[in-house]
Amino acid sequence: MSRGLRNCNPGNIRITKDKWQGLREVQEDKSFFQFTEMKWGYRALIRTLQNYRIKWGCQTIADFINRWAPPVENNTSGYISRVCREMQVPNSYVPDINDKATMCVFAAAISQVENGVPAVMADIEKGWELL
User: Fold this and answer.
1) Average pLDDT value for residue range 70-80
2) Based on CB atoms within 10 Å of each CB, which residue in 64, 74, 87, 128 is the most buried?
3) Mean predicted confidence (pLDDT) in 45-52
4) Is the dihedral of CA 120, 121, 123, 124 positive or negative?
5) Exposed, middle or buried by CB within 10 Å (0-12, 13-18, 19+), for 37?
6) d(Cα 121, Cα 127) in Å, to the nearest integer?
7) How far apart are CA 109 and CA 99, in angstroms?
């Protein structure tokens, strides 16, 4: 099982000072947040993407992924291509961050790239409902 799935953090969100809802009481992974349930990890993933638009002005899928998986530590162009292929959209696609279907598919694509296995859509939808 991948680290992201073990941590119930399908987006592999790195530890910051943020106090996410649904965090495990004890954070044993020194690099990535650990959530109590997958729905909380998906909530954090979706909320982070929404904040990328609101706080950082990300518009296109390429903009979002350049911030999510920066070139200093990732094959960002490959990541963008993979997410776009999973979503069946061009990298210039501008997702509606307030649309459940769009954001659930976006989160599923990121989870697929991060963890190497298809996401469970029911978990993503539960995360959306917690927003």
Assistant:
1) 96
2) 64
3) 98
4) positive
5) middle
6) 10
7) 16
